[in-house]
Amino acid sequence: MDEKETNGIDSNNHISKKAKVIRCITQSEIQSEFSHHDSSTARINNGSFGSCPDSIMSCQKKWQLKFLRQPDEFYFNHLQAGILKSRSVIKKIINADDVEEVSIVDNATTAAAIVLQQIGWAFTEGHFQKGDVVVMLHYAYGAVKKSIQAYVTRAGGHVIEVQLPFPVVSKDEIVNEFRMALEQGKSNGRKVRLAVIDHITSMPSVIIPVKELVGLCREEGVDQVFVDAAHAIGNVDIDVKDIGADFYTSNLHKWFFCPPSVAFLYCRKMGEMSDLHHPVVSHEYGNGLAIESAWIGTRDYSSQLVVPSVLEFVNRFEGGIDGIKKRNHDAAVEMGVMLAKAWGTSLGSPPEMCSSMVMIGLPACLGISSEAEGLLLRTHLRDSFKIEVPIYYQEPKRGEMEDMIDSSCVTGYARISHQVYNTVDDYYKMRDAINQLVQDGFTCKMLHSG
């Protein structure tokens, strides 16, 4: 078998559906790949910043040195070809029709800016009417909300946030809430110009029935649909043709083992593609988004060039990326159930709506009464117990305030992640730390200074 077969890529940048594997990676090799992690910390927060194995960091360093040795030769002979190869890998993974539909950008935040910038121009130039609508989920990522504020509302667009339930029982709850938001958006003769839909919400973490929501947008005449799937690639299945959105973005540094930072933006072939531009304007402006994005001035492009090597890395695992996704999901749910049982709480969503991230209710007696206190508890767990895990504050619903006073209302949730480097001891450490706090009569009010 030659090296290209091992990578699953042929000379025409085609990727075999089942790349051949010589030998599956062992558990000791996995731990060696991530030996640079702080061994004293239970790192159960892969969702925030991802993780990069040693072998990929070595590959990245080779790309960096290749540039530093002879920048001109690198720029003219290697950069564009390398990025095209990475785009080809991504195209196959997400089942896009054409590599021209795939651009590589720094992160999902950049991708959101590209799409929302176009929407803002449409308002400014009079293609959309003042007061026309953008619909987004209430749990949209904060940076995306700010981008909508910066590009859309300033240009005269009206924003409707879909209020999603949490804890969530079924996807039907989400679909019904989204349908009502679209109906509201179309009231008084307005038009819904864009829907922004998460594939996996960040906090709280829930898999959104994205295909159903995109289909609903088509039925209701929404102009364009943008799926923010920052956590998706390497975490859940992606088939952009089946999902049917106009735009779809995901970070490769979160769950696909790339170094920070690299993401893709898929743009379905259509006339609007010519109106999309990278927010950083370089001499490639006007040559198409993929080319514009591949050169935004002198910077380190190495994280965008290692994607084929990452494909080789994931194919060392049984079942490749599909096997990794299943094992991570199953382990995350198993650990979530274990923690919920230990704390006398429950998961924030059914297992089928969990990815490799799971929300678990924290004991109500901890007294988490605000987002700020959730952050204080997170810091306390890091500093005092060497545990890294995000904490989500869920404001009590009406009728639950009395329960909150009686310390029986769950207002805090831990978002655990599971990646290949995690072991069961990481979650036992989390379990025991929370149990110790409960036993000691700890409340979050004790963390306030003064």
TrEMBL record:
<feature type="domain" description="Aminotransferase class V">
    <location>
        <begin position="82"/>
        <end position="273"/>
    </location>
</feature>
<dbReference type="InterPro" id="IPR015421">
    <property type="entry name" value="PyrdxlP-dep_Trfase_major"/>
</dbReference>
<dbReference type="InterPro" id="IPR015424">
    <property type="entry name" value="PyrdxlP-dep_Trfase"/>
</dbReference>
<dbReference type="InterPro" id="IPR000192">
    <property type="entry name" value="Aminotrans_V_dom"/>
</dbReference>
<keyword id="KW-0663">Pyridoxal phosphate</keyword>
<protein>
    <recommendedName>
        <fullName>Aminotransferase class V domain-containing protein</fullName>
    </recommendedName>
</protein>
<dbReference type="Pfam" id="PF00266">
    <property type="entry name" value="Aminotran_5"/>
</dbReference>
